[in-house]
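note to self — DONT lose this again. spent like an hour looking for the file last time. sequence + predicted structure for the chain T wanted, 356 res
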Amino acid sequence: MQRNSILLYGANGYTGELIARYASQYGLQPILAGRKKTAIEALAKELGLPFRIVGLDDSAALQAALEDISLVIQAAGPYHITAQPMIDACIATNTHYIDLNGDLDVFELLQGYDKQAKAKDIMILPGAGFDVVPTDCLALFLKQQLPDADHLTIAFAVIGSALSRGTSISTLHKLGTPGATRKNGQIAYEPMGKKGMSVTFPGYKHPVFVMSIPWGDISTAYFSTGIPNITTYTAINKAAWYFLKAQSAFNWLLKTSFMRSIIMGIFKMQSAGPDQTVRDKAVSYVRGKVTNAKGATVEASMETPEAYSLTAFAVLVISKKIISGDYKPGYQTPSSAYGADLIMEIPGVQREIIHK
């Protein structure tokens, strides 16, 4: 097998399966992989793709599975558990690594592999999906409009869709943990949802309430732009925001294994994720603003396909570039590797400056 092969790990998960199903549209034939043989084999047979069964807890077997692989798409979360064993195997086998991570701490962890990746002439690019391709590209786009910007805010909303089971479970692992922002170049932890505000997204007729969250751009947008003060927001029901504002009173309960097992049971009963009809109708919106020390501002907005569909498209666009030899060694973000216009390569994306 040639060294330009792609291994899609976690192909049986909701987003992993989407990537597998769209891959042929991008001229790619990934090897499907994971630890659940029944699910992986069934999908591989349906799509006519090869497959491999390997667990992340067997480092020797994992490295053996990557010996002839050029690129790993790590689609199995939660990433605070799954990222490190896979990246260690990638470093050992000179294999490029991309994932769908949105966890601030994992971005920071993987950035620590920069020197090792450069020495092996491979690229580490976490956040190759909705987390964080559109927001990272918009951050760099805004920085290019106002090069001396020292503050950045980004808000996003996915209208008409829902979380997948996997995303919900990953979120469960973060219950009871703080939010974060970036202040003067440093990550500053704060209560989840400390700030709330209404945002108007061009193209959507109603104002949307958003709250501050520790989105990956607290790490990635800083890496991409150098802007030292960054706050990120996501849409939330205002009543739910008030509930979260009181979170500190019951953080201890959310962290107990008893409560987490109850919530996990609820998540496991939900559907795998939104079906294609829902995804085709849903829309994602992003709005960003940069400000410099003199008070000058630039604002821009973006409209994209539904978040999970965009993730599959973005991962495959990036994978095709890497396989063709278009990559930058070391740790990268989507925009540091491919520029602010990477997001514009995905059909259905619209971007505009709304204030300058």
